[in-house]
Amino acid sequence: MKKYSKEEKSWALYDWGSSAYSIIITTAVFPIYYKASATGAGVSLSDSTAYLGYTIAIFTFILAMIGPILGTIADYEGMKKRFFVAFFLLGTISTALLAFIPNENWLLMLICYVFAALGATGANLFYDAFIVDVTTEKRMNSVSSFGYGLGYIGSTIPFILSIAIILLSQNGVLPISVTIASRIAFLITAIWWIIFSIPMFRHVKQVYYIKREPRLVHQSFKRLGKTIREIRQYRALVLFLIAYFFYIDGVGTIIALSTAYGTDLGLDSSSLLIVLFVTQVVAAPFAILYGRLANRFTGKKMLYVGICVYIVICIYAFFLETITDFWILAMLVATSQGGIQALSRSYFGKLVPKENSNEFFGFYNIFGKFAAILGPLLVAVTSQITGKSNMGVFSLVVLFVIGLIVLSRVPEPKAHESIDEVSSV
């Protein structure tokens, strides 16, 4: 495979920058910070985990509703970059604002988190759709996995800096409180995200688009309705979206609630942060490896592997008791987390018509985001009914099993045929 082009590298560098949000805000520092704030306000451990799950469900529902509509409009010339920038600004500004919310106001934290998450996930919708503009179908598996690999590597740098500041404050080396140290981590995240998004703004352009026409919004709704009717003509595409709906639900839920789950088990924040750092380091080469193995064995077979690993993760999490158990669990997650996400993106990217990539990725987004409502709700309800967080994580097994069964019925993608047929309609 020839070296990556300027456009491919610029596109992948956005993952390098934005993944700081994923590890520091979604997975590591913010959940611990929030849990401490909620506990200090008298909220029980199981309830605070449930509230976080409900919050994730709220913002994913909002984005799922507007994603296909915005995606359809974004297919017009010049609109994809505009929507990307708008969500990027919402995400980075809201992330920075987390640093200025009073520690005792855990509810306001969750509200600000909703806006930060909307910005981050909304920007990713258009970022994912840009894959058709920066590379070819033949290179999609490798480029998509390269982006995830860079994301894992790049996120470790601000993560290390954030951990160092927090640990030094805990041990009295730095004359600041842990609360201030956590707030500094939020600012580091926003700054890192902004800096490494610059190549994306400069070098990535919307190559495939539809010429603008009068009454753009009205025409977009008409096109969306047409797409809803036409998408059912493609059995492989529809089955894949259904499978994706279930298995990516489990993946996203485990990512979002992992540290909260570890806290409920009594693991201290320092141990959790170190485990998450090592997970990022291990995940980087595995994400790239998934892309290379997909070129040899097909993306579908590697998706099978990833889903099976996650089924094992859910079962093992049920028996989690010690820090050693959490280390084993984290390393299992590291082997497949990036690979399953990267190959899902490239698998879908090969099926969609390039000129309508945002519109179709809007459906990809709505299936993914609606799935992300079900998983956190399943964990939240199960945790509250049983009073045990491990039962909530174990309940996710059913989502992976359903996803695996449906994926097995997906015909091997014939990307060129699908694209030609859709484009000719």
TrEMBL record:
Highest taxon of source: Bacteria
One function term, GO molecular function aspect: transmembrane transporter activity
Membrane topology summary: Multi-pass membrane protein
Residue ranges crossing the lipid bilayer per the database entry: 12-34, 54-76, 83-101, 107-127, 148-168, 180-201, 236-258, 270-290, 302-320, 360-379, 391-410
PROSITE patterns: MFS
Xref: CDD domains: MFS_YxiO_like (cd17482)
Record-linked PANTHER family: AUTOPHAGY-RELATED PROTEIN 22
Full protein name: MFS transporter
Organism: Planococcus halocryophilus
